Amino acid sequence: MGVSADESSEQKLPELDTSGRVIVGWDPEDPQRWDSKVAWKTLIVSTYSLFLGFCVWFMVSAIAPKLNEIGFDLSSAQLYWLTAMPGLSGGLLRLVFMVLPPILGTRMLVGLSSLLYIIPMVGWFFAVQDTSTSFGSLMLLAVLCGIGGGTFSGYMPSTGYFFPKRLSGTALAIQSGVGNLGMSVIQIIGPWLMGFGLFGITFIAPMRGDEGALWVFNAAIFFVPWAIVAAILSFWLLKDVPVKANIRQQLDIFGNKNTWYMTLLYVMTFGIYSGLSAQFALIINSTFGNDSQFAEQGLTGLPSGVTYAFLGPLIGSIVRVIWGPLCDKFGGAIWTFVSGVGMTATLALCAANLNPSNPDQFTPFLIGMLAFFVFAGIGNAGTFKQMPMIMPKRQAGGAIGFTAAIAAFGPFFVGMALASFSVQSFFIGCVIYCLACSVLCWVMYARKHAPFPG
Hints:
The protein is mostly helical. It has helices at 5-12, 36-57, 59-67, 76-97, 101-104, 106-116, 118-127, 135-144, 146-150, 152-160, 165-193, 218-221, 224-237, 247-250, 257-287, 293-296, 311-330, 332-351, 362-390, 393-407, 410-420, 423-446; strands at 207-209, 212-214. The longest helix is centred in the middle third of the chain and has 31 residues, at 257-287. The radius of gyration is 23 Å and the shape is globular. The model is unreliable at 1-11 (pLDDT under 50).
């Protein structure tokens, strides 16, 4: 009796073997060739490492406001550039990390990245102890913090290799959402860590700030042991899947028009979101707070931006995790569309209150921003579900890395735009962009009989 071509091909495939460092016979779409324990273990370890990476990425934003208090003499422009550089370098490094998963493999990628995090942390630990440290040296350390953000474009495609399409939304939402929480964590605990000695290193004299002794270097050194643990776990527990491609082969993603469409959509859901998260406190202070026209009028009880700074990353990250399973159930495209419409409406509400005549307009502005962060989180989950559904697995991994790299420039370019245009004008521009992206998502992905349903 004859054997069909499909049966013959199936017989030639090797049996699943996860005992070595490189998994043999791996195919997440075939239950017989997929090991859920290996996949979820990979997700846990790499997400833990990515969380630390985001702490490193936003570490400068926690340290910079304290530098002049402890004896540095930096201008406001220099402080701005210090906090902006990790966003710029993180975006550039994502263009590097996006091609590494098929070259290095998951085990080496996550292990080496965890060790790289230590370099800027140790650098800042020593730099802030000497107020004569040059601005150039501080800028270099700020650039190196971009490593923490750059690894995202390597980790996300790598994780995608381990999960079937039916679970890709959940897995990628968990990794990106929990990883992004590092942005909030460093902003919340950074100032707290600077308030007392750690790890028995109290022999290093504290510096004096406006409110007494400060151990500014704590915010940098605290995460070093955890990064070492992440590296050990990576080299010990992680494995590689047989997905290999050189840089030239990976360039085929640019011939797929979905790469460009999804880049536009992810700039909407993450680029604008991350940029406004980074600038949220400044916008509040300059429009409604102590740097606003209302302060000049002698009004008191004005809102302080630092009180709300952590909310953007926190809300967006939590919503991203929650919406992953919903994207697996209903598809990512419809949620990306919902996100675009919601972001358009909420940014319009914010824009309407950004030329205030009364400080009470802060309340509708704040409501609009908090709702905006919710819709952005939904869209971040939706876009990462879409790419594995509408593109081949390796191309989807590359596209995830590329779109994440472009959107990572958000904090840098949003900061530049706000320095060049009025806040209200910038928000109006964002409304127009989000509306255009919503139309694109509906036509190409979300409507019935769309060319690329996902």
